[in-house]
Design goal:
alpha/beta; Udp-n-acetylmuramoylalanyl-d-glutamate--2,6- Diaminopimelate Ligase, Chain: A, domain 1; UDP N-Acetylglucosamine Acyltransferase, domain 1; 3 domains; ten-stranded parallel sheet; 40 strands; about 15% helix; flat
Length: about 350
């Protein structure tokens, strides 16, 4: 709990109103309680402020005659992140050491201050770096490497010969390094192509729950530094994702595709195999990319085309029922005119 005055000081805000109010949490405008602070990052929500139960609000600019404490900041989203950190319920840090129920293979290197939780299985030749936490139920395959200050949540599976960097977070039930979906049809049956490569996850990557990142046929499937992957994402064999990309829930990337720096894939976007996506490209939700996309493009639709063109197409499609009705009316009028001409002949 913090007073509004304490919070304003911690986030560098200019405070107007009662400074003694106690704040326990952050809440959205429509659902905030009397113990919450709320926020407005978009001016269209300003009219809702008088109705919210929150006694204080974080804003970009002061609102005159508002009966709430106002914390004025340059960047609402940055202030919100800091506020959430300050008011977060602190999780109990994992204890260094190896739980007695863990199974540890031969020739492993586990840092003294790393934490290995209950029922963890670590195969031969695995390395776990300083201050890393391997939570209950995780399995790490032979010769894989986990860097420093990395966290694997419950039941994460890391197959053999995978390399995970420093300051990485992988949430529960995600699988790293499973065999990719690569088959050829031979002698009347689908034959699996051996996948002898690995997976490299670079520093400061965050991966959500229930994701699947396949190992490469040869070389490595690679997730670049600073990339953030949402829940339920499929990344296929030999995919290369560059630095600081955002891959949002239920997106799928087929084998050997390459994403440049700062690419954004919105929810349920799909990329076919062997496609190259340039730096800074944004692919809209439910879009299907079937060809290379140059840097800086914004794409939407299936198949994905230029965002502005797709929006125009969607707008026109919405007008089709009215246009069809109008066409029917015009056709009737023309038929009547033609009939009248025939009568005069």
């Amino acid at each position: 709990m913090l007073t509004v005055a304490e919070l304003a000081k911690r986030i560098g805000a200019e405070l107007y109103g009662d400074s003694s109010i106690n704040i326990k949490a952050v809440g959205p405008i429509e659902a905030a309680s009397k113990d919450d602070i709320t926020f407005v990052a978009n001016d269209k929500y300003l009219p809702m402020l008088e109705k919210t139960k929150a006694p204080a609000v974080i804003l970009r600019k002061r609102v005159e005659h508002l009966s709430k404490s106002q914390l004025i900041v340059k960047n609402v989203n940055a202030a919100l992140i800091e506020t959430l950190k300050l008011l977060a319920v602190e999780a109990k840090p994992p204890k260094p050491g190896i739980d007695k129920t863990a199974v540890i293979g031969e020739n492993t290197e586990i840092a003294d201050d790393a934490s290995i939780g209950p029922c963890v299985v670590i195969a031969d030749g695995v390395k776990v770096g300083a201050k890393s936490a391997i939570s209950a139920g995780c399995k790490i395959g032979a010769n894989s490497i986990i860097g420093k200050n990395t966290r694997l949540d419950f039941n994460v599976a890391v197959y053999h010969n995978c390399k995970i960097g420093n300051n990485v977070i992988i949430q529960a039930n995600t699988t790293i390094g499973s065999t990719g979906f690569g088959y050829v049809f031979l002698d009347g049956a689908h034959k699996l192509i051996p996948h002898n490569g690995g997976v490299i996850i670079e520093d400061f990557v965050e991966i959500g729950a229930n994701c699947c990142i396949d190992r490469a046929k040869f070389g490595n499937t690679t997730i670049g530094a600073g990339t953030k992957v949402d829940n339920l994402v499929q990344i296929a064999h030999n995919v290369v994702i560059s630095k600081c990309c955002l891959i949002i829930g239920q997106a799928g990337i087929a084998g050997s595709s390459k994403l440049g720096d700062g690419v954004v894939l919105a929810s349920q976007a799909g990329i076919i195999d062997n496609v190259s996506i340039g730096d800074g490209v944004i692919i809209g939700a439910q879009s299907g990319v079937a060809h290379d996309v140059p840097a800086g493009q914004k794409m939407l639709g299936s198949p994905a085309i230029d965002y502005s063109e797709e929006i125009r197409r969607i707008t026109l499609v919405k007008k089709l029922p009215k246009m069809a009705q109008r066409l029917k009316e015009l056709t009737k009028r023309i038929d009547k005119l033609e009939a009248a001409k025939d009568d005069k002949k």
